[in-house]
Design a protein that fits this description.
Blueprint: E1 11-16, H1 20-30, E2 37-43, H2 51-54, H3 67-74, E3 79-83, H4 93-99, E4 102-105, E5 111-112, E6 125-127, H5 128-135, E7 152-156, H6 160-170, H7 173-177, H8 183-190, E8 196-200, H9 212-217, E9 224-227, H10 230-233, H11 237-246, H12 249-262, E10 271-276, E11 279-287, E12 290-303, E13 309-321, E14 324-327, E15 331-332, E16 341-342, E17 347-348, E18 350-351, E19 354-356, E20 362-368, H13 371-374, H14 382-399, H15 410-420, H16 427-443, H17 454-461
Parallel strand pairs: 1-2, 1-4, 2-3, 4-20, 6-14, 7-8, 7-14, 8-10, 9-10
Antiparallel strand pairs: 5-15, 11-12, 12-13, 16-17, 18-19, 19-20
Helix pairs in contact: 1-14, 5-6, 16-17
Bound molecules: NADP nicotinamide-adenine-dinucleotide phosphate.
């Protein structure tokens, strides 16, 4: 047999997951011009693009234009898409080893982190990621219930997800109606009684994880006032020293925006968004099993020995009446069948994208990219360089012949799947679903009208 990666013996790669990290794996492999590669992408849902479809906010369509590049990669003759196929049930690790030289896991971070405080189990206490998946029409989340009859809601965390959730809760129906938000979510939010949204951050404005365009947008909402208490907008000495030393432009912009918010006087808007700093939730208080208030403690900032700024609790407590709480303190990766998992970090065990055993030895043919490799950080484009690092190692290992030795062919994959799974979705099937959603969107002046359950997606193809 000729060398792996040659025209007569192409390097066969299975990619699990069709989010940004999966698609950047494809585009990075297409740049390895000395290797002939065949790539098959497996996706649990019939639809590709992971969090670009189900995570990016529906009112941030410009971030979704990255899918144009993914579509371009998908047109390449060396690429095949198998949607509606779940790794671990419809296809196993053993199957993949029989058919591919290398396997790339790009399964993202589908779970979320807890706060670990009393009352988190109460009705009305939710993860922000569930709310995001619900309003974005993720098929797993269409039945989720959020009690939008509540007047006051708290969102815990200062990341962009917290900002997304708070913004969606504060926007008017007119602002949301032109998005690709799931129809049922649009209907529910149209009836929303939410008037007060509190975003609660444990550190100060200089340590916030949100980015300048996202925080600035909170001051431009059609019918919501934004408030920041002046004392919480003012940088403490440790934060000021940290910022003076780093000169970080984004932090400076964030701090300036927050300062400007703190100078605003109340307008006569229907909704009020309050962003608080240096406060931590200590308990969700319940009444008849449902959240009725959140207890917070005021923090003070201090410089730790490594030069970072941390927060520690003071003895000042406060209770804010709220009927719903969204914890938005970060996504978390979930274990993947038969792959070593680092439970502490919520990632697949790896060194620069090579999956490793407990002794940190690389496992032949096994790779990882994206959030399940490095944790849930960075913007969509961060996954490009992340995938590039892994693909470089995959190409290096392929050239060295350190790969699985599959006994079955590309055609055998199709036979295996057609025996196991009746409704496998190809990329051209996805294109039909996509066209259906886009044309329904065009008819109502929206980017698309999403299909939110798998039966409806399959019905489009029949
Ligand atoms: P994130 O950026 O990691 O932010 C998590 C926030 O939770 C931080 O403010 C963190 O504060 C806080 N936190 C963590 N543990 C806490 C606790 N026990 N109590 C109180 N606060 C706590 O996570 P994310 O918002 O889920 O976003 C994930 C990634 O997706 C990020 O890279 C984000 O930029 C990206 N994203 C981007 C966009 C966009 O570009 N528009 C939109 C959505 C998401 P500390 O800093 O004090 O730890």
């Amino acid at each position: 047999m000729s060398k792996v990666g040659s025209e007569s013996n192409p390097l066969r790669v299975a990619i699990i997951g069709s989010g940004p990290a999966g698609f950047y794996t494809v585009s990075n492999f297409l740049k390895q011009t000395d290797l002939t590669v065949e790539m098959d992408m497996f996706e649990r849902l019939p639809t590709p693009f992971g969090l670009v479809r189900a995570g990016v906010a529906p009112d941030h369509q410009k971030y979704k234009t990255v899918t144009r590049a993914y579509n371009k990669s998908a047109q390449h003759s060396s690429f095949r898409f198998f949607g509606n196929v779940e790794y671990g049930t419809d296809i196993t690790l053993e199957d993949l080893k029989d058919h591919y030289h290398q396997i790339m896991f790009a399964t993202g971070a589908p779970s979320d982190r807890n706060l670990g405080i009393p009352g988190e189990e109460l009705t009305g206490s939710h993860s922000a990621t569930d709310f995001v998946a619900w309003y974005n029409g993720h098929p797993d989340c269409t039945d989720f219930k959020f009690d939008l009859s509540q007047e006051s809601v708290a969102v815990i965390g200062l990341g962009n997800v917290a900002i997304d959730v708070a913004r969606i809760l504060c926007k008017t129906d007119a602002e949301l109606a032109s998005t690709d938000m799931a129809d049922y979510a649009l209907d529910a939010l149209r009836e929303s009684n939410v008037k007060n949204v509190y975003v609660l951050g444990r550190r100060g404005p200089a340590q916030a994880a949100f980015t300048p365009p996202e925080i600035k947008e909170m001051g431009e909402l059609e019918d919501a006032d934004v408030f920041v208490p002046v004392d919480e907008a003012t940088l403490d000495p440790a934060s000021q020293a940290e910022l003076d030393a780093s000169g970080d432009k984004n932090v400076k912009k964030n701090v300036a925006v927050i300062e400007e918010f703190s100078q605003r006087t109340e307008r006569d808007n229907s909704r009020h968004l309050t962003i608080r700093f240096l406060v931590s939730p200590t308990e969700l208080i319940g009444e008849n099993g449902a959240v009725s208030a959140i207890k917070i403690v005021k923090n003070e900032a201090y410089a730790d020995e490594n030069g970072g700024v941390k927060a520690r609790a003071t003895d000042q407590e406060e209770i804010i009446p709220v009927g719903m709480v969204f914890r938005s303190v970060g996504y978390r990766g979930a274990p993947v069948a038969e792959v070593p998992f680092d439970d502490y970090n919520g990632t697949i065990q790896n060194t620069e994208g090579r999956i490793t055993d407990d002794d940190k030895n690389p496992l032949t043919g096994m790779y990882v990219a994206g959030w399940i490799k490095r944790g849930p950080t960075g913007v969509i484009g961060t996954n490009k360089t992340d995938a590039q690092e892994t693909v470089n190692h995959m190409a290096e290992d392929a050239r060295a012949g350190a790969v699985f030795e599959p006994t079955k062919s590309a055609e055998d994959v199709v036979s295996l799947l057609s025996a196991r799974k009746p409704d496998v979705i190809t990329y051209s099937d996805w294109n039909k679903i996509d066209e259906h959603e886009l044309s329904n969107g065009a008819a109502s002046d929206r980017p698309r009208v999403k299909l939110t359950n798998i039966e409806d997606m399959l019905a489009v193809l029949n």
